[in-house]
């Protein structure tokens, strides 16, 4: 990929999406600065193993720093030229936000304003940041569009992600900082997070334990394979947002702005029912799951479905990996990592 940018800083570089993005950008010839606090929300060894692969490349530099440590972040930005920041670091998980809300305020709000400040003072040319499909909350008009109002979150995690979008727009307005927010839809694939359904289901089935199937299997998710997510992010990095000259304060468009600010969905544009997802895992593993049917959990939404027209129109890309193909690749990795 040709680009005017050379130096990209990725926060959450030891995380699932951050690792895959860093690997891709290094392969494309970029210099990558990785920032991660290596917290123990899930297995730190998995994060360290991801980092081991990245640090084999001499163009990767890692900093173990927390986003809440403003002085630590300032040192990184002051010492290294940064063209683009991709902010993927966040306290993740809808259900955990019911147990430990303060972790979300610290990482997703305090940490994010620190990133915005560092971008502003170091003349970063483009801030790309992770939002989430969870911001759609109580919305039921599908497929979800970035032009729809999203003022009714149903989890604190979602509220912090919506807040990130508002904070980024403020910095775009005040300082002309080009910002692009990406609403990811249920990302899965090799090196994924152990707290996600695919990981939990695979482990339980292989251990001959029952799996918890919420909303009696009627949940629908726009499962998006990691390589598709990364391709979308890489293309967006180069698509620095321009002000929308047709934007009007009389009828405000939520997905664009009179300033250099954009919001995109990155989803598979093809919602899959949880039972079909489980069937694909069973097929890839060659064994049946024992299912424990349960009610929907607080903070969860029944369905997600992304309208990706804006992403396609802006960067010419839409995800195409089928759920069966993506799950097979995950199972292959899982077996080699844990059993190989």
Descriptive overview:
By secondary structure, this protein is of the alpha/beta class. The two termini are 34 Å apart. Helix 5 packs parallel to helix 6 (156-175) and helix 7 packs across helix 9. It has helices at 16-27, 44-54, 70-79, 96-99, 101-121, 156-175, 197-206, 226-238, 274-285, 309-315, 323-338; strands at 7-11, 31-36, 60-64, 84-87, 126-132, 179-184, 187-188, 211-213, 220-221, 224-225, 261-266, 272-273, 291-293. It is 40% helix and 16% strand. The mean pLDDT is 94. Helix 2 (44-54) links the parallel strand 2 and strand 3 (60-64). 45% of the residues are buried. It contains 11 helices and 13 strands. The strands form 4 sheets. It has a 7-stranded parallel sheet with strand order 3-2-1-4-5-6-11, sandwiched between helices. The longest helix is centred in the N-terminal third of the chain and has 21 residues, at 101-121.
